[in-house]
TrEMBL record:
Modified sites of kind N6-(pyridoxal phosphate)lysine: K349
Cofactor needs: pyridoxal 5'-phosphate
Signal peptide per UniProt: none
Pfam families, per the entry: Pyridoxal_deC
GO terms classed as biological process: amino acid metabolic process; carboxylic acid metabolic process
Alphabetical keyword list: Decarboxylase, Lyase, Pyridoxal phosphate
Protein name: Tyrosine decarboxylase
Organism ancestry: Eukaryota, Viridiplantae, Streptophyta, Embryophyta, Tracheophyta
PANTHER family: GROUP II PYRIDOXAL-5-PHOSPHATE DECARBOXYLASE, MIP05841P
Gene3D superfamilies: Aspartate Aminotransferase, domain 1 (3.90.1150.10), dopa decarboxylase, N-terminal domain (1.20.1340.10), Type I PLP-dependent aspartate aminotransferase-like (Major domain) (3.40.640.10)
Family: Belongs to the group II decarboxylase family.
GO cellular component, one term: cytoplasm
Length: 531
């Protein structure tokens, strides 16, 4: 990217009057141009901050909300991708915690001057990297309420509402997605909120492993085989490592020659037959709706038939794209979900629910409980012993769990289904607009078919040299990201280095997409001129 000047790596900050000042982003330099809130700070009645006191809470929490609201007012003035160097914070903060209390004002001033420069702004409208991690007002309010009530809901008795609300909102969401009734809590199945898709995948893998080992004996662990595609999220590999699946028994079927990087049922069938013939035991398939690299959709119906025939646990990972399936016109991507044993979608990606909130549904909850339940004396209680209730501690790795259903409930109630559907549609429309802009410029190439709100594309070099093309696109990514104006990420498909542009931040509007494309064009012209 030699010679390229897109924008100096300056931090352009706005103050409360809406004025903007450019402050060089050097670790240790105060961002003096910025000013969050203007009232004097006190902890209330001139006292030290108490562990808990209703009036102090009210005062300080109001200040914090003002601080956060000001952050959102100014969010476009920060470089989207933090431009600090590794270790920057160690140089700015003292070596030990303060012995005497400090004021909230002093702390928030340091948040402005020292922490925010090291923040990558996931909620910026100019954030297009990885997949989105939506925050919203409703999600924030739910998160606040959850933090405020501050319970630990591992068993029903520890807060009956936490367990019961979780069951209800996951039934609501299952109905929105038109999941089969087997996934509802009224029968032998049900949903639970996990921290992440990775945890969801791990717990179902453990349930599937133990189910088969109960049948064939624990000694067979080394023979168990797991299937996915080379596009399956890396959390499958991690889950296999933790679950003790032999590293050589993870089959990630190649998708390069397949339909848009989707897992081919033929290739899965062949692999299974081959493994059975070798004396191995196929037991788990993870299919993906909306792969991480290019949002490919594995053909659930055909894959499900194969897993059923071979008694293989069928998990469907729709971490990102699951959200789109609340719209009737995208629901067909879940066709075949009837065949699945478990299904997962991250409400914290594209469903306006602040991180973390990963919804997992399972058809036979007893399999999970058999793998993960414990029953120590100190947790025994009448409701649990009487088997009248769900104890979510038996559905997950940790014991403790937060009241996360509050935020999903708030999102569903404060926005309503119609608004959530238009939210998704709007992002997909914006992604389509971006795709059209790319397609009109002959210097660029759209690399994979856009299915949801991810556009995969790359800049083409004049000389058609693939190695050079990869370098060119790496340089283009560096150029746009170091400009601070947008943040995108990349992937490699069929050996080609590709730019990923995902629309999904709640604040993104058409003008942001247009500006982002202009940045790509300018940066590309500069790169091509200097090449
Ligand atoms: C993001 C993603 C994951 C991992 O999500 P976590 O919640 O961070 O574990 C898994 N699978 C797919 C398809 C994803 O897009």
């Amino acid at each position: 990217m030699a010679g390229l000047t897109v924008l100096p790596p300056n931090l352009v900050t706005g103050n409360m009057d809406g004025n903007s000042t450019a402050v060089p982003l050097t670790p240790g330099t105060d961002m003096t141009g910025i000013c969050f809130g203007d009232q004097l700070w006190e902890n209330g009645n001139g006292l030290n901050l108490m562990a808990m006191d209703a009036e102090q809470l009210r005062k300080n929490a109001h200040k914090m909300v003002d601080f956060i609201a000001d952050y959102y007012k100014n969010i476009e003035s920060f470089p989207v991708l933090s431009q600090v160097e590794p270790g920057y914070l160690q140089k700015l903060l003292p070596d030990s915690a303060p012995v005497q209390p400090e004021s909230l004002q002093a702390v928030l001033q340091e948040v402005e001057t020292k922490i925010l420069p090291g923040v990558t702004h996931w909620q910026s409208p100019n954030y297009y990297a990885y997949f989105p991690s939506n925050g919203s007002i409703a999600g924030f309010l739910g998160e606040m309420l959850s933090a405020g009530i501050s319970i630990v809901g591992f068993s029903w008795i520890t807060s009956p509402a936490a367990t019961e609300l979780e069951m209800i909102v996951l039934d609501w969401l299952a109905n929105l997605l038109k999941l089969p009734n087997d996934f509802l809590s009224k029968g032998p199945g049900g949903g639970a909120i996990q921290g992440t898709a990775s945890e969801a995948l791990l717990v179902v893998l453990l349930a599937a492993r133990d189910r088969i080992l109960r049948e064939i004996g624990k000694d067979a662990l080394g023979k168990l085989v797991v299937y996915g595609s080379d596009q399956t999220h890396s959390s499958l590999q991690k889950a296999c490592q933790i679950a003790g699946v032999h590293p050589e028994n993870l089959r990630l079927q190649r998708t390069e020659s397949c339909n848009e990087y989707a897992l081919s049922p033929e290739s899965l069938g062949d692999a299974i037959s081959h493994d059975i013939a070798s004396g191995l035991i196929p037991f788990f398939l993870c299919a993906t709706v909306g792969t991480t690299s290019s949002t490919a959709v594995d053909p659930l119906l055909a894959l499900g038939k194969i897993t059923k025939r071979n008694q293989i646990w069928f998990h469907v990972d729709a971490a990102y794209a699951g959200s789109a399936c609340i719209c009737p016109e995208y629901r067909h991507h879940l066709n075949g979900i009837e065949e699945a044993d478990s299904f997962n979608m991250n409400c914290h990606k594209w469903f306006l629910t602040n991180f973390d909130c990963s919804a997992l549904w399972i058809k036979d909850r007893n399999t999970l409980i058999q793998s993960l339940s414990t029953n120590p004396e100190y947790l025994k209680n009448k409701a649990s012993q009487g088997r009248k209730v769900i104890d979510y501690k038996d559905w997950q790795i940790p014991l403790g769990r937060r009241f996360r259903s509050l935020k999903l409930w708030m999102v569903l109630r404060l926005y309503g289904v119609e608004n959530l559907q238009s939210y998704i549609r709007n992002h997909i429309k914006l992604a389509q607009q971006f795709e059209d802009l790319v397609a009109q410029d002959t210097r660029f190439e759209i690399v994979a078919t856009r299915t949801f709100s991810l556009v995969c594309f790359r800049l083409l070099p004049a000389n058609k040299n693939e190695e050079y093309a990869n370098k060119l696109n790496r340089d283009l990514l560096d150029a746009v990201n170091s400009s601070g104006q947008i943040f995108i990420s990349h992937t490699v498909l069929s050996g080609k280095y590709i730019l990923r542009f995902v629309v999904g931040a709640p604040l993104t509007e058409e003008r942001h997409i247009v500006a982002a494309w202009k940045l790509f064009q300018e940066a590309s012209s500069s790169l091509l001129e200097n090449s």
